[in-house]
Amino acid sequence: MSRSATRNNPASNNPEEPVSVKASGRVREYILEAVAASPELLTFGKLAKVIKSRLDISRNDLKKAVGKLVTEGELIYSYKHGCSFLEKSFDKPVRISKRIVLAPYRMMFQERPEDVVIRLQHGISFGSGDHPTTRLALKGIEYVFEEPAFPGNGRALDIGTGSGVLAIACVMMGSISAAGVDTDPCARNEAVENARINRIGNRIEILDTPVENIKGRFSIVT
Questions:
Q1: CA–CA separation, 122 vs 222, rounded Å?
Q2: What secondary structure does DSSP assign to 148-212, as a single string?
Q3: Which residues on neighbouring strands pair with residue 75, listed in sequence order?
Q4: 3-class SS at 220?
Q5: Contact residues for 184 (Cβ-Cβ < 8 A; gap 6+)
Q6: Which SS3 state, helix, strand or coil, does residue 63 take?
Q7: Strand-pair partners of 206
Q8: How far is CA 210 from CA 55, 182, 195, 201, 207, in A?
């Protein structure tokens, strides 16, 4: 089918229909969206299945496109359990959702008025944003706080707070305060520091209290 025919064909607007790479010009965007939206870590093989369901692209061309994104620092390879996975690089500001952006501490970022920019000091605790579950949780927090019926000005509780990113997100989205609980002293120290970096240290309490001993009412638990 010619390019003009494709453009005039209503079926070509179907987002589920594979389109030619040249016609779409969106290989880069498709790859980044697929990696960011996946609920699990993607190997190159799994990524290829996702992309090839949307784009008419050869495996070799896809490898080149992924390689360029790795070179540019948009993606990184991580190695877990003997497999290599493609993940978003968090050595630069990364937009997690419509409003929430994770940014390395001290790195400049031109934010929009509605953005919620969470700055994190690089550490070893879980919750830097590189894991799909963290990104999904942040998207869920944004979704809940934008619900008109949600009493967003209550307290938040983050169990297994790690870096403190979810507690920080809740406060920056509207919670009056938050408590983050973790058994790891290293995680607690990093969470305290990240809360300070985001200038909300006085609104977030980091605890080692067993969950069953925590008292009070919370409007959101993460």
A1: 22
A2: TTS-TTSEEEEES-TTSHHHHHHHHHT-SEEEEE-S-HHHHHHHHHHHHHTT-GGGEEEE---GG
A3: 88
A4: strand
A5: 125
A6: helix
A7: 180
A8: 49, 9, 21, 21, 9
pLDDT tens-digit series, residues 48-107: 999 988 888 888 889 888 888 887 778 888 877 788 888 887 777 888 999 999 988 877
pLDDT (tens digit, 9 = 90+) per residue, 8-63? 333 334 443 444 444 345 788 889 889 988 888 899 999 999 998 888 888 888 98
Structure tokens at 178: 């938050």
Instruction: Give 82's DSSP letter.
Output: T
Q: For a pLDDT cut of 90, what percent of the chain falls above it?
A: 45
How wide is the angle at C-alpha 152 spanned by C-alphas 149 and 155, nearest 5°?
135
CA-based torsion, 135, 137, 174, 157: positive or negative: negative
Beta strand 75-80 with 55-56 is unpaired
pLDDT category at 127 given cuts 50, 70, 90 is: low
CA distance 2 to 13: 15
Model pTM? 0.64
Beta bridge partners of 56: 20
Residue 44 vs residues 1, 49, 85: alpha-carbon distances, Å: 29, 9, 7
